[in-house]
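Good morning,

Both structures are done.
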Amino acid sequence: PHAGLYRALLRPGGGGPLGLVLHTDLRARSLHERRLVGAPEPELVASAVAATFAGVLADWLHGLIEGDPDRIAHLVWRLLVNLHRTPLG
């Protein structure tokens, strides 16, 4: 029932006011977690994680990605886990 509101706040690709908040918060959280464990390239991976999550969510809301919510959640989670596991050395 609120899809129009969400689409106005989160533009395709992850932009918009909600996209900015999501990206900022997710990047900060990922950066903190990577630094805690001494993972390589914390800034790079934190940005990739935040952009992937916000972008996929936004594109799904705008109908650019097809799939039911559970499937999209499962797939985006796998993407995020794999970003963290990608060897960068």
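Second structure follows.
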Amino acid sequence: MRGASSVFLTQISQMIQLIDTDFSTSKAVAPLLLYDLRESAESASKNRSDESLYARMFKAS
């Protein structure tokens, strides 16, 4: 899971740098980046839930 968190934080950093680099362009692009960021967060959250489910399944067996 640490690897996924690291990739996720790298994505956030890259998005912030892109927005910060060219603010005039980012006004149009920012909503798309934020949508992508939300999708990434939801995916990461689902992956954590799946890991928790697997852990419970292995504990039960």
